Each structure stands twice: as C-alpha cells, then as structure tokens.
C-alpha cells in the first residue's frame, strides 16, 4: 500500500491537478501546451490579484528573453479552452494598462489522500481498429497500473489514472475516443475534443514566413515547397535538404506565372507541381535536383497523388460553370486519363492547393470534400479504386477540411480541419473504417498541406499565422480623383495594437458619427466591436457564445448594422441596432455573407452560395421573403454611392485570375466593365464611379483605384510591409479604415507519431 498526497484546484467545472500539471473537465484531460498550463497555474495561485505582464513573464520565463507575444498567446489559448463561467464572464479578466486577473471561484483541495493498491503485470489496452483489412485490433503494453483505486474524491479518479498511464506507458498517448458515426450532424464541438499526441515533437523547418505547400520526401530527407517573393506575387519551387539546411531553387519565378502543390514521386526522384498561366492549371514534373520541367496534364486542380507503386496519378478536374468535380486516374506520364468518381453541385471535392491521397495498399483514394446541402459540411471521402464508389468516413459536420494523408497500413488518416467558422485549422486523426476522431494539435496556428513519410513516422505541414490591427488613413478626396502616383503625404495611424488578434479581418464599416465597426476575435470568438477613429472607447456590440459574427454593414440612415452570423447553425444575415440591441434574424438560407444596403435603406442585398455557385438576393430590412436578383452567379455585392451601379465578384476559371470584379447597371443589368480582381475586398470611393481594391495578397499589399469608365488603374498607397485584409472608405471620403497585419507561413515537421 502507498499513500500519495494530491493537490487540486476546482473551478467552473474544471479541475487542475497541481502535481501532474493536468487540467481536466468532467474527468477528461484538456490538451494544453506546457507553458499554457504553467500560465494557468500562476494565475490560479494568485487568483483575485492583478498580475502585470512583467510579473508573469518573470515567473514563466525567468532566465530567458522572449517576446511578450508568447504570453498573449498563452492567455488567448486559455480563454478559448476555458470559455465562460455560468454567469457568462471570462475566467481571465484583462485589466487595462495593468495586467491579468483570474476571477473564478476556486476551491482548493490540498493533501487529498488516495490509497492505491499496487498490482503488477496489468495491461493497458488501446484499440486500433481496421477490422475490414485484417489488421490487429489491440495493442498491449506491460505496465504496473493499479487494478483498483479507493479515493476520497471520486471526481478525480479518471484523470489520475490517465496521468499515471501517461507517466508509465512510454510510447503511448492518452486519448478520448468518439465514434462519430453514432453522432447526429449537429453534435457540439465539445463532443469530439480529444487529447493531443503527448509525445510528438514539433520542429520548424523554415523561418522565412513566406513558405507554402511544403511536402516531405518519402525517405524523410528533403522537403519541397513554394517560395513567395517579397513585394510581388511571384512564386518559385525549392527543394531543401533537412539535415544540412541547404536549399536549391528547381523552378524559378516568372512573370504572370504561379506555382503550387508540389509533391514527390514515391521513389523521391521527381517533384510534381502545378503551373498556372492564362487562367489554366497544368501539371508538370521536374527532377528533384532540377532540370527542364516537363508538362504532363492540362486542367488539373489541386495537388496530384502518385500511387504507391508510382505507376499512376490521381487528380481532380473542375468544370466551374457546371459545378462538376471529377476525380481521374492517369498513367505516370500523363497518358490514359480515366474518370473514377464525380461530385456535382452542391457536392464537391476541395481543390485549392490540396488533392487526393492513395491508401498504402493502392485500393482506396481519400479526398477532402463535402456538400453545401443544408449548409457547408466537409468530410474525408473514400473512393474505391476498383468501382468508383464513394462514402463519407467520419460523417461529422466539419466546417472545413484540408489535405488528407494516410497513415501506414491504411489504419487511419490525418487531416487538418476546423469545426467552426473562424477557428484555426488543427490536425485530427480519423480511424479507418470507423471514422473515430482524435485531435492531434491544439494551438492558434492553422495547419494545411500535410504530407507523410513512407514509414509514417514524420509529418510535414504548412503552419500559418495571421494577425491584423486597425489603421486609419487621412486623404484629401480631390487628390484621390487626380493622383497619378502614390500619395507621399498619406498619414496612416494604427489604432489597435493587440497581439494575436484579427481586428477587421472579417469586415469593417463606418458609422455616421465617424466610429468604426469591425469584426474581431478579441473575446476568443468573432464578435462585432466599435471604436473611435482615434483608437479610443473600444466596445463590444455582439455577445457570442461560440459563433462568428462577421462582415458588418451600416444602413444609410445609420440606425442598423447587418452582418453574417452562424448563431442559428447556418451563416445567415442578421440585423442589430447601431448600439448592439434588438437582434433580428433576416434570412434563413445557406452560406449567406457580404450584405449591403440599397440606397433607400429598405433592402439588404447579400450573397448566398451553394457548392461553387454564388447568387445574389435581397430581403426587406425588417425581414420577409428573400427575392433573387437577376444577375449571373456573383458574390460580395456593393451598390455605388449614387445607387445606379452594382459591383460584385465572380469566379471565372477561363480567365487569368480567376476572380473577376464586374460592374453592372442596377436597373437594366447591362455589364459595364469587368476587371481582374485578386482579392475579394473592394469599395466605392464616395461620390464617384471609381472602385478601390487590394493588390498583393501574399506579402505586401496596397490599394489601387479603378474608374468604371475604363481609365487605367492608379496606385493609391505605397506601403512597404504588411498585408491588407480589408478596408472601407468613410462616408465623406476623407478617411480609409484598414485591417493590416502579417501573414506568415512556414514548414513544420511533426515526428514521433508512432
């Protein structure tokens, strides 16, 4: 018999085991990085006190120099994990200009005695299922785990056992399993949370901040990736030797040509990649050490997938006008194309930079995709190579899903996915064939473009971080109309400066009294906020409990704000008074975003999409039956200041873009102009028929103007750093509010996955 003293803090449905540094909720461990756990412990131990950032930094990193952003990220992660208390308050309160305060009611349980009867030769059994393929169904590990526990506090028994397993069972990870095939389509987020792999190692392979589409070679010695040039939308393809760090450009950058989605051949000798020119994607192949690239197949969307034996290629072709996505198989040299499976709107395969993945036995192809029927829902789609039969793996309503990769022996897949709009895309494991879910990562980064070594021991992915703050620019309106060069006297002032936030990332709107309404994740979820143009008097207008409230628009009389929110389970258009009161749902369709007002303020015009098709609708300001607008497939509508024209975006796969910006007469529907539009945020200059839009989407962005009469475009700003995500002119045309920030993307390697 052994006697162990335990120390717990209980608060708001959570329990913190001090000795083992484990936070749990309802007996289940909550996955957190070690520094986030340490941050939480310091806050709990000093509950009720205001701790300055300097005090916290000294406690958490006493002998190191680290940026304050690390502390801010830990606080953000904790707020997101803890959520709100029963009375709707956050557990961690920010005290302006002072620091942070832990305000939960904490019950401290010291020296709780647990009497453990010791036994040996007890097994920890973890099921690893894929019975259809004849694989082993159990894995066993000898460990000295007690067979019985008697404890004063029963509520702590579950996670005490789990932490003991973690300490003793070297090479194993703790995980909570959920069989999602038994869940309803509306299962809550908390139902699928599971512990991260406890023993995995994460290492950054690049630190340039402009790396996309990284992939690892089958033997794990090299990575290939796309490099974005500073200040220009140019890309090139590189190969890097991981051990030495040496890198070589194998496909150089060129004007009006873009590259994406490289992937190694199974023997590691070649790199396949997509080359986009004149609106067309073509598949090329180049030797891993570089030579003249060889063109193989035209009209390919997303990453191709070489078969395990290297003899065949799987890829997707899209007919955007018909809403048709086709999975095809061809020989390794590009000949012998054969259609295998088709999804037609509202069903689709995801193709922007990602593509199919062959199972190790070559019998199944997994794709990321889904349906827009009943709202957008993604899943891993398994396609039988012999018959073309499709089936969904997890049958869970993922909001979005990225590149799918198979683990060895076809027992499971790894996928980057999100459960809710606005959440970072994290890595999950889906078992095969059951579709059970395990969460692998849990942080604030977005993971995309996964690839795996042949032995399954090492994973490489794209880790992206985006942040934005609000800026206000002053500009004389007359100069806007006559300027022939970027203004040299523009005063740009940053009015928000919080780290790890996305202020204005999903929309900005000016009120009639000169304040700025914007979306922000400052509360842990996307809400609407309002702030003075000088950065003072910041206030939250919407109170979310997990939903996203984005893309605000102000009515012409200044009385109402309309916005898109998924608080009803679907993204619909909602209305609220300018002071945040009297919430009203205006629509009940599917995927409804980007609302704007008619000149008289009586109608709200908005975008609704089903699959790849966008349509414009209008609904009365007080609610009612929506009416479709007689305009071809379009999105992001915006009425001109005089009410005569409507500008909107549309996707044209035949064009060099492929996003276009169209201008039509609102009354007659006659098309006036069509322009290339690399980014979907644009605005009319007040009192004019001139549009302002963003140029530069990868590194540095600037604003340009485009008169509708077809005159040449003109550059309006001359920023030399940061990316512009969104902007809007003030009603008098004298100011512009912008969401500017950094976009960083690098290759990361996750090892020790076994």
Number of strands: 59
Structural class call reads mainly beta
Distance between the termini: 34 Å
Report the mean per-residue pLDDT as an integer.
Answer: 78
Which CATH class of the largest domain is shown? Mainly Beta
Show unreliable segments: 1-5, 112-198, 477-489
Total domain units:
3
CATH architectural label of the largest domain: 6 Propeller
What does this structure look like?
The protein is mostly beta strands. It folds into three domains: about 1-170, Arc Repressor Mutant, subunit A, CATH 1.10.10; about 180-185 and about 205-455, Neuraminidase (6 Propeller), CATH 2.120.10; about 465-745, TolB, C-terminal domain (Neuraminidase, 6 Propeller), CATH 2.120.10. It contains five helices and 59 strands. The chain has a six-stranded antiparallel sheet, sandwiched between helices. Helix 1 (about 35-45) crosses helix 3. The chain starts with a strand and ends with a strand.
SSE layout and pairing:
Blueprint: E1 2-11, E2 14-17, E3 22-25, E4 28-29, H1 34-45, E5 50-51, H2 53-60, H3 68-82, E6 92-95, E7 99-102, E8 107-117, E9 122-127, E10 138-143, E11 148-151, H4 157-168, E12 201-204, E13 211-216, E14 222-228, E15 235-241, E16 247-251, E17 258-264, E18 270-277, E19 280-287, E20 294-298, E21 301-306, E22 312-319, E23 324-331, E24 338-344, E25 347-349, E26 357-358, E27 364-371, E28 377-384, E29 390-392, E30 400-401, E31 405-406, E32 412-418, E33 426-431, E34 437-439, E35 446-452, E36 458-474, H5 477-482, E37 491-494, E38 508-510, E39 515-520, E40 527-532, E41 539-540, E42 549-554, E43 560-565, E44 572-577, E45 584-585, E46 592-597, E47 603-610, E48 613-620, E49 627-628, E50 635-639, E51 645-651, E52 659-665, E53 671-676, E54 682-684, E55 690-695, E56 702-707, E57 714-715, E58 723-729, E59 735-751
């Amino acid at each position: 018999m052994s006697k162990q003293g335990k120390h717990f803090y209980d608060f708001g449905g959570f329990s913190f085991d001090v000795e083992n540094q484990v936070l749990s909720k309802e007996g289940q461990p909550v996955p957190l990085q070690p520094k986030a756990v340490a941050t939480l412990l310091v806050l709990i131990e000093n509950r009720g006190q205001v701790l300055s950032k300097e005090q916290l930094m000294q406690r958490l990193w006493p002998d190191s120099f680290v940026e304050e952003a690390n502390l801010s990220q830990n606080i953000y992660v904790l707020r997101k994990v803890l959520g709100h208390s029963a009375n709707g308050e956050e557990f961690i309160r920010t005290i302006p200009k002072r620091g942070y305060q832990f305000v939960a009611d904490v019950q401290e349980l010291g020296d709780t005695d647990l009497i453990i009867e010791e036994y040996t030769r007890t097994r920890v059994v973890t099921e690893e299922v894929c019975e259809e393929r004849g694989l082993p169904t159990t894995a066993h590990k000898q460990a000295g785990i007690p067979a019985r526990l008697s404890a004063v506090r029963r509520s702590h028994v579950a996670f005490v056992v789990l932490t003991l397993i973690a300490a003793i069972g070297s090479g194993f990870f703790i995980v909570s399993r959920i069989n999602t095939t038994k869940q309803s389509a509306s299962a809550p987020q908390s139902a699928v949370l599971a512990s991260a792999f406890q023993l995995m190692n994460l290492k950054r392979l690049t630190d340039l901040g402009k790396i996309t589409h990284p992939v690892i070679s089958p033997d794990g010695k090299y990575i290939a990736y796309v490099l974005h040039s500073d200040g220009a939308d140019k890309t090139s393809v590189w190969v890097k030797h991981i051990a030495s760090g040496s890198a070589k450009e194998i496909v150089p950058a060129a004007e009006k040509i873009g590259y994406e989605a490289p992937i190694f051949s199974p023997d590691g000798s070649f790199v396949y990649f997509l080359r986009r020119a004149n609106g067309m994607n073509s598949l090329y192949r180049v030797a891993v050490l570089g030579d003249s690239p060889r063109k193989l197949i035209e009209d390919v969307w997303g990453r191709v997938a070489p078969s395990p034996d290297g003899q065949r290629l799987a890829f997707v072709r899209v007919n955007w006008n018909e809403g048709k996505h086709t999975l095809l198989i061809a020989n390794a040299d590009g000949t012998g194309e054969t259609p295998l499976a088709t999804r037609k709107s509202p069903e689709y395969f995801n193709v922007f930079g990602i593509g199919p993945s062959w199972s190790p036995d070559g019998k199944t192809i997994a794709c990321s995709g889904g349906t827009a029927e009943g709202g957008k829902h993604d899943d891993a789609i398994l396609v039988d190579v012999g018959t073309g039969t499709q089936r969904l793996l997890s049958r869970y309503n993922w909001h979005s899903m990225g590149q799918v990769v198979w683990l060895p022996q076809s027992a499971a897949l790894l996928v980057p996915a999100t459960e809710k709009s606005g959440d970072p895309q994290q890595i999950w494991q889906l078992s095969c064939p059951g579709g059970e879910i395990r969460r692998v990562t849990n942080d604030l980064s977005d993971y995309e473009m996964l690839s795996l070594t042949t032995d399954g021991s090492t994973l490489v992915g794209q880790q992206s971080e985006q942040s934005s703050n609000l800026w206000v620019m002053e500009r004389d309106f007359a100069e806007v109309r006559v300027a022939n060069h970027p203004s040299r006297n523009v005063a740009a002032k940053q009015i928000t400066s919080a780290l790890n936030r996305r202020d204005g990332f999903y929309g900005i709107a000016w009120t009639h009294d000169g304040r700025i309404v914007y979306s922000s994740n400052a509360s842990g979820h996307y809400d609407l906020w309002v702030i003075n143009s000088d950065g003072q008097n910041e206030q939250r207008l919407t109170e979310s409990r997990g939903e996203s409230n984005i893309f605000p628009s102000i009515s012409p009389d200044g009385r109402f704000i309309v916005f898109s929110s998924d608080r009803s389970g679907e993204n619909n258009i909602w209305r609220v008074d300018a002071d945040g009161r009297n919430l009203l749902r205006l629509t009940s369709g599917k995927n409804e975003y980007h609302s704007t007002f008619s000149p008289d303020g009586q109608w709200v015009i908005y975008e609704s999409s089903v699959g790849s098709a966008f349509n414009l609708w209008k609904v009365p300001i007080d609610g009612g039956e929506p009416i479709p607008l007689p305009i071809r497939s379009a999105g992001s509508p915006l009425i001109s200041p005089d009410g005569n024209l409507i500008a909107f975006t549309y996707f044209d796969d035949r064009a060099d873009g492929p996003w276009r910006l169209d201008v039509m007469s609102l009354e007659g529907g006659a098309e006036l102009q069509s322009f290339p539009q690399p980014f979907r945020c644009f605005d009319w200059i007040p009192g004019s028929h001139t549009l302002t839009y963003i140029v530069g989407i990868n590194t540095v962005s600037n604003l340009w103007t485009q008169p509708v009469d077809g005159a040449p475009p003109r550059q309006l700003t001359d920023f030399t750093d940061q990316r512009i995500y969104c902007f809007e002119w003030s009603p008098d045309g004298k100011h512009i509010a912008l969401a500017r920030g950094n976009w960083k993307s690098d290759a990361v390697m996750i090892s020790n996955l076994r």
